[in-house]
Amino acid sequence: KAGVTQTPRYLIKTRGQQVTLSCSPISGHRSVSWYQQTPGQGLQFLFEYFSETQRNKGNFPGRFSGRQFSNSRSEMNVSTLELGDSALYLCASSPSALSGNTEAFFGQGTRLTVV
Amino acid sequence: AQSVTQLGSHVSVSEGALVLLRCNYSSSVPPYLFWYVQYPNQGLQLLLKYTSAATLVKGINGFEAEFKKSETSFHLTKPSAHMSDAAEYFCAVKAGGFKTIFGAGTRLFVKA
């Protein structure tokens, strides 16, 4: 069974640009969550989608948005990039958001560098 | 609200020594608790999880953790460290609204 796939793995963007990151969850998983990881802030929760609906949202500005498609694939978008957006963005999928004891399965992440 | 505190951002042990990584949680409802490991430039991988079935949980690579409700702790241990254990370890809690909250992480160094 293929794992969580994130594309691209590495990305360099200029301040002010926008970027779209993609995540394909494990087959059959309907929940996709996104996290931002930086050395100073650790893992920060961005948002979670389940069956194309956003279920939870972290404390990030509106420049960060996401969506989930009917096949459970998810994208996140960051507009008007700032230097501080440089981070490793991790996507995680779970079989179901309704069962609390299911763990998250992580992709390898997309390393975004804003210059 | 739920939260996780990992004591010690860096822990250094000698190869063969005991590994102890500390995690304390806060949750208003019975929590599910997890330990994940992250190797450089990789995503997180599940080591073990507590789901209320047993307070002592065994995971992969010889790691185990004990849930202590009275101490609100879920410390991770391994009897004998190996060089390959060097990585960053994250404790996480999940409760109520199904959002997983991660601790700040503890980087484990293993000295030869």
Low-pLDDT sequence parts of chain B = none
Order of helices and strands of chain A: EEEEEEEEEEE
What overall geometry of chain A do the principal axes of the alpha carbons give? globular
Biggest sheet descriptor of chain A: 7 strands, mixed
Compact description:
Chain A is an all-beta fold and 115 residues long. Chain A is built from no helices and eleven strands.
Structure explained in plain terms:
- The complex is a heterodimer of chains A (115) and B (112).
- Chain A is an all-beta fold and 115 residues long.
- In chain A, 0% of the residues lie in helices and 52% in strands.
- In chain A, the strands form two sheets. In chain A, strands 2, 4, 5, 6, 9, 10 and 11 form a seven-stranded mixed beta sheet that branches. Chain A has a four-stranded antiparallel beta sheet with strand order 1-3-8-7, with no helix packed on it.
- With 112 residues, chain B is mainly β.
- In chain B, 0% of the residues lie in helices and 58% in strands.
- The mean pLDDT of chain B is 92.
List keywords for this structure.
heterodimer; A: mainly beta; 7-stranded mixed β-sheet; 4-stranded antiparallel β-sheet; about 0% helix; B: mainly beta; 6-stranded mixed β-sheet; 5-stranded antiparallel β-sheet
